[in-house]
Structure prediction request, 165 residues.
Amino acid sequence: MAIRRIVTDNDAALYKVARHVEHIDNRINTLIDDLLETMYDANGVGLAAPQVGILRRVAVIDCGEGPVILINPEIIHTEGEQGCMEACLSFPGKNGYVVRPSRVIVRAQNRDGEVQEYDATGLFARAVLHETDHLEGRVFLELITEPPEGYTEDEEQETEKAVIE
Ligand code: NI
Prediction:
């Protein structure tokens, strides 16, 4: 395992559509190990392959309940709405209020190539959507809106720590 360099800001890899994974081979397994190590080292809750310059449809998430590995993820259902301060390891120092669905069902392959479904809510749902956006070359900056009235700095500071993807 190795910590990889996280690409930032204007790096072209952040704005391209990542390619489908056909075979979960040694390279993909090493990529997954490295994404996990790099994410934990950076104190993030999610990291997608394009963020380390690899345009493959692979992302990892850990919202505190252990690692979730998403290979070729597909969002098959979304509902509800949640707003929260969000940040991204590829845009250090930037954050903003982003509204996303509050529940998402995602279908993805695991390391064994088995198709699994995750029914995600709250932070997990947000992370799934943030990371699958990365695989489409979309970054969270496009989604930033004004927080609603009454949304306090204290709340922002608490959530900001938790939501760095
Ligand atoms: Ni991100």
Q: What stands out?
A: Residues 88-90, 130, 134, 165 surround nickel (II) ion (CB under 6 Å). The longest helix spans residues 26-41. The radius of gyration is 15 Å.
